[in-house]
User: Which sequence fits this backbone?
């Protein structure tokens, strides 16, 4: 691999600045003279001998043709083919019987051709290696920054003595910081492995796994001074990595916690006000998630817009379903919390089966919009996935919104009054039934929002809600009823505890430990972390 | 009537025999057992009245569910604790029985290992885990059927009742318990066969489990166990202890203020109920031939509660009726239109809680009272005391 790399890079060195300048000019001018030369280069590829083909590849590399990379890539993928009448074409998709093809020189689409009329320009493993390395370095000269970045990253640990000088030259010309940093690292890795002090020093604090390999090789080197320095940097890096791993666990924990908070907070409201456990809460979440899916079906090609629209839509759908449940069933079961639990469980079964029958028992795919996918790369050891970050932010916004409703609106005031003392609130003129309906709508709506958020993290299927219902109850029990802060703290901390336990206990065992922990916890504090104080506590 | 009451009140365990409802229940149960036996053994298979081995097996399964429902009714109906985790005790009893049955397979397993069950050989284990020791002995395994669920209930109940966890909190915690156990038993490392559970049983106490006679025997044994369990529960609820537990159900704080250590009564009844559930599980497993973690699933436990609610809470016989009715419906539904079963089940939950809070048994009472009221109205000369006597 290295040999090819250096070979390829040296070729470029010969061409020097001219090529770089040429490559950075974006217009791919294809003039007749150029095409004639290019055709000659390609003709050279179609020979029997693999040695001759290798030389032809080198020739293509040395040519200053802008399209060289595409040719080589196509050659590597076996998509560079020749028609019966000797024309070179690029196969765009080699599936089925007729393949769409394009002209190699002009890039113009030529329609479909039968596979029988095409003949592939064959290569062997040696050539394949040569091509891969060549393509790797070719990208370093690409005008596209992204390509240069990936190419530079691929160079880590692949540098050898002959490459150091050319790369150093490249570093000086490079404008992008990231590419420059990677190339410096690549050289440093080579130097550290060769036992040079400069390399070890340059690698200090680098979190890339390849750097660690280089440093641990340097530790075993002959020179005690360098070995010590390498060992010191290595220890520092390990320390850094540990911190980063801790941060990552914390992030995942908070992300899981935010989901739990979203799932539990609606439950906490309804449970707090009405003393009713809504076993169908999970299914209301499921409705929210399916609303997102339906929105995306309605607005094909605009997953982002659909997602944003499904926030109010999911809220409304779940809130309406909640009101229906409250009016249809729960109001007849006043003062019988255990029966309410059973009835709402029945509703959850019906809703689940309804989705299975009407939509599908299989999971539906909800598309993650572009601005939500990908991850935020903090450093080589830590990257935070964006969708989780959005969900975390969303959970906090929902929490803040609910807090505002509870503290600053008339409805919130009435809800708090009914939670604390129903009879007294009623005698003060609060219409408790209306408050019940409003709270149930609010709590259910929040469940719908949770579903919208969940659709971005997990599969949307009929069992979506079931998986969260027990966990959300645990959060409510842990945090204490009727206290939103309690739910927030409990949800986030349970999420973090779960993630901290997972690496050494496994996912299932971690869950069991958390459940046992909660069972033991309510021994000490039967009313949760933040119990209600005053007369309301005697229920 | 009064004479029998006099003579049997001396001993709490015989007291239920003097009750009309118990007499009827036991009579019906015995008659049903006898009828099924006769129809199975005496009536030739060609006769349409003949009850096949499959049906006997099915009835045996229903009876074990009925015993489980009685256990749940004991805690829910008479103690006011809605346990959403009784499936856990049922499953643990079942696993204890399953472990015994696994050990009975011996060298006849697929891998032919003399000691280790197949799944352990498959997992490359070289010896039995400690908790599997002793399960080759029937007496030990049968004792564990009661002890293991009882012990779990003791520890769990002690923790829960001591800190006065009641109401919906307790329900949710019991649900979490069975959920946690389900997750745990799904793990292969637990040594209970993981996902597949324990199956491929061959014989129980030397009787081939696949023979029709054994199936009939198991059916009868389950029927007897149900009868005995019923009498035990009846005895408990009619005893002084039972009255305290009913008082706890209706007004826990008041009972405590009267000087009763409420948590002890709760704990006792809870443990007895768990043991009965374990027994039911142990009788269930040889009849269905498999035990796996799905018995721990929260939905199963909550279904048991529906049986009780449908049949009528705090009657015990209602629990039996409910268990048999719902499971019969399930058998029919899942055979004819499997998709509709969950709709039916969900609708049952809603309808029973909203329209039939006292269940089928409550319906009986209502009809009986109406009839009585009708006769009283039609016959103004009737002596009001005779009405009391007939009741």
Assistant:
């Amino acid at each position: 691999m290295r040999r090819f790399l250096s070979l390829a890079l040296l070729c470029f060195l010969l061409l020097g600045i001219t090529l770089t300048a040429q490559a950075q000019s974006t217009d791919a001018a294809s003039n007749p003279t150029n095409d004639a030369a290019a055709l000659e280069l390609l003709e050279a590829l179609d020979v029997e001998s693999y040695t001759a083909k290798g030389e032809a590849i080198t020739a293509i590399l040395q040519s200053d043709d802008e399209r060289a990379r595409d040719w080589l890539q196509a050659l590597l993928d076996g998509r560079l083919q020749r028609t019966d009448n000797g024309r070179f074409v690029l196969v765009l998709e080699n599936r089925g019987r007729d393949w769409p093809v394009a002209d190699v020189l002009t890039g113009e689409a030529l329609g479909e051709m039968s596979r029988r009329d095409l003949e592939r320009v064959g290569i062997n493993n040696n050539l394949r290696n040569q091509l891969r390395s060549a393509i790797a370095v070719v990208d370093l000269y690409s005008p596209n920054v992204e390509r240069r970045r990936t190419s530079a990253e691929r160079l880590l640990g692949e540098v050898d003595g002959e490459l150091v000088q050319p790369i150093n030259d490249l570093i000086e010309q490079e404008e992008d910081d990231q590419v420059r940093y990677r190339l410096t690292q690549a050289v440093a890795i080579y130097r550290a492995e060769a036992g040079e002090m400069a390399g070890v020093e340059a690698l200090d604090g680098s979190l890339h796994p390849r750097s660690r390999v280089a440093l641990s090789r340097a530790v075993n080197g002959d020179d005690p001074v360098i070995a010590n320095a390498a060992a010191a940097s290595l220890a520092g890096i390990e320390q850094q990595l540990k911190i980063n791993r801790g941060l990552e666990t914390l992030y995942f924990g908070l992300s899981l916690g935010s989901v739990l908070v979203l799932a539990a907070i609606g439950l906490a409201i309804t449970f707090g006000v009405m003393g009713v456990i809504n076993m169908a809460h999970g299914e209301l979440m499921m409705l929210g998630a399916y609303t997102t899916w339906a929105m995306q079906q309605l607005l094909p090609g605009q997953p982002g817009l659909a997602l944003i629209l499904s926030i109010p839509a999911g809220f409304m759908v779940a809130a309406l379903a909640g009101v229906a449940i409250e009016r249809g069933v729960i109001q007849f079961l006043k003062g019988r919390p255990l029966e309410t639990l059973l009835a709402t469980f029945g509703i959850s079964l019906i809703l689940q089966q309804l989705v299975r029958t009407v939509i599908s028992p299989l999971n539906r795919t909800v598309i993650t919009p572009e601005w939500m996918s990908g991850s935020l790369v903090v450093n080589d050891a830590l990257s935070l996935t964006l969708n989780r970050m959005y969900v975390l932010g969303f959970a906090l916004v929902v929490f803040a919104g609910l807090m505002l409703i509870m503290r600053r609106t008339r409805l919130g005031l009435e809800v708090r009054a009914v939670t604390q003392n129903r009879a007294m609130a009623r005698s003060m003129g609060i219409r408790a039934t209306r408050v019940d309906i409003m709270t149930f709508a609010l709590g259910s709506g929040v469940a719908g929002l949770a579903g919208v958020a969940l659709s971005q993290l997990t599969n949307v299927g009929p069992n979506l809600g079931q998986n969260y219902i027990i966990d959300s109850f645990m959060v409510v029990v842990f945090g204490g009823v009727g206290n939103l802060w309690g739910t927030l703290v409990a949800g986030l901390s349970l999420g973090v505890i779960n993630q901290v336990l997972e690496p050494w206990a496994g996912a299932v065992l971690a869950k069991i430990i958390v459940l046992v922990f909660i069972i033991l916890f309510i021994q000490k504090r039967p009313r949760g972390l933040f119990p209600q104080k005053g007369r309301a506590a005697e229920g | 009537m009064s004479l029998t009451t006099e003579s049997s009140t001396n001993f709490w365990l015989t007291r239920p025999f003097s009750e009309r409802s118990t007499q009827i229940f036991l009579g019906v149960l015995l008659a049903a057992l006898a009828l099924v036996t006769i129809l199975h053994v005496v009536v030739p298979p060609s006769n349409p009245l003949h009850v096949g081995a499959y049906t006997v097996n099915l009835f045996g399964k229903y009876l074990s569910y009925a015993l489980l429902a009685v256990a749940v009714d004991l805690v829910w109906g008479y103690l006011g604790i809605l346990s959403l985790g009784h499936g856990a005790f049922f499953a643990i009893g079942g696993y204890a029985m399953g472990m015994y049955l696994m050990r009975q397979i011996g060298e006849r397993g697929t891998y032919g290992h003399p000691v280790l069950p197949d799944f352990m050989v498959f997992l490359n284990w070289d010896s039995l885990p400690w908790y599997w020791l002793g399960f080759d002995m029937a007496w030990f395994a049968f004792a564990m059927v009661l002890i293991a669920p009882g012990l779990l209930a003791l520890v769990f109940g002690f923790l829960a009742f001591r800190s006065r966890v009641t109401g919906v909190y307790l329900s949710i915690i019991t649900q979490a318990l069975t959920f946690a156990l389900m997750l745990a038993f799904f793990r292969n490392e637990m040594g209970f066969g993981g996902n597949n559970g324990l199956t491929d049983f061959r014989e129980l106490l030397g009787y081939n489990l696949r023979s029709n006679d054994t199936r009939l025997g198991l059916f009868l044994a389950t029927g007897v166990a149900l009868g005995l369990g019923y009498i035990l529960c009846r005895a408990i609820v009619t005893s002084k202890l039972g009255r305290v537990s009913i008082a706890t159900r209706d007004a826990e704080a008041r009972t405590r203020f009267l000087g009763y250590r409420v948590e002890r009564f709760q704990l006792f009844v809870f443990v007895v109920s768990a043991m009965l559930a374990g027994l039911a599980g142990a009788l269930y497993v040889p009849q269905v031939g498999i035990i796996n973690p799905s018995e721990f699933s929260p939905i199963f436990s909550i279904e048991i509660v529906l049986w009780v609610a449908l049949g009528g809470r705090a009657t015990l016989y209602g629990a039996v009726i409910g268990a048999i009715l719902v499971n019969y419906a399930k058998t029919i539904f899942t055979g004819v239109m499997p998709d509709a079963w969950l709709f039916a089940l969900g609708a049952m939950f809603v309808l029973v809680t909203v329209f039939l809070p006292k269940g089928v048994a409550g319906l009986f009472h209502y009809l009986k009272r109406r009839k009585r009221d009708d006769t009283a109205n039609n016959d103004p000369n009737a002596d009001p005391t005779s009405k009391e006597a007939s009741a």
